[in-house]
Amino acid sequence: MQKDEVFKSENDKVSDFKFGKNVAVVFDDMVNRSVPYYGEIQRMMAELAAEHAREGSDVYDLGCSTGTTMMGMDTLVDKKIRFIGLDDSPEMLDQCRSKLTELGFDRPYELRCTDLNDEVTITNASVVVLCLTLQFVRPIHRDRLLKNIYDGLISGGVLILVEKVLAEDSMFNRDFIKYYYNYKRRNNYSELEISQKREALENVLVPYKLSENIEMLKQRGFRHHEVFFTWYNFAGLIAVKS
Questions:
Q1: Partner of 193 for a Cys bridge, out of 7, 68, 89, 94, CB 3.0 to 4.6 A?
Q2: What are the residues whose beta carbons fall under 8 Å from the beta carbon of 182, sequence distance 6 or more?
Q3: Which residues, 6 or more positions from 144, have their beta carbon under 8 angstroms from its beta carbon?
Q4: For position 71, which CATH number holds?
């Protein structure tokens, strides 16, 4: 696993965050050091996916990045079920293919280069995963994406959603952000790296409150939902199509 040093050197002007080659090659280290309990979240998503995946249907990973979620689900989901990974970064998909090949991935799967801000085709899905992905979709397009997901799920199918979130009461946001940056410091990110990444993400990652995410799910027709993970400004939800 190559170490994340994307923001280690000082830049006069920090560009918007992009999932290009420089990020793709270090992404696994980046996400493990930047997302609290990332390994446990992956384990929980795999368990939930295995519970709800149905033979004859497909499992979708939207924003599949380097394939970590698909590899986690592969350990528990029936091998006859096809996985479909979507990502808009060719470089991330290259990393994903390499990892799956190295692993000897022996189930049917397909990788598609797709921008989730555009119209997305989802069909015959029993499980759709959005792990730290919806936050990168422009707000104006999120409702349409959730509609496409809902329409593409079979009856009883589920959406597994993990997001960075805002506190319900704004007075807690400052504290939660402080605790989060302390977490990154404990994982050996410098003040410069923290500040430059924050600036790069400012107009790219747009979080909602947990309640706002739940309301979007309700408006799209998801009548049953439950929070399965929370840590300050991170949350995981599962929602079921009736």
A1: 7
A2: none
A3: 119
A4: 3.40.50.150
CA distance 102 to 90: 18
Q: With contact defined as beta carbons under 8 Å apart, do 70 and 97 qualify?
A: no
For residue 2, being part of any structural domain is answered with no
Q: Which structural domain range is residue 157 located in?
A: 21-240
| Separation between Cα atoms, residue 149 and residue 230, nearest integer Å | 23
- And the tokens for 81? 């079920």
Number of domains in the chain: 1
159 falls within a domain: yes
**pTM for this entry:** 0.97
The enclosing H or E element of 196 equals helix 191-201
Q: Which residues of the chain have pLDDT under 70?
A: none
- How confident is the model at residue 147, as a pLDDT? 97
206 and 139 Cβ atoms separated by less than 8 Å: yes
Tell me if 26 is assigned to some domain: yes
**3 domain-assigned:** no
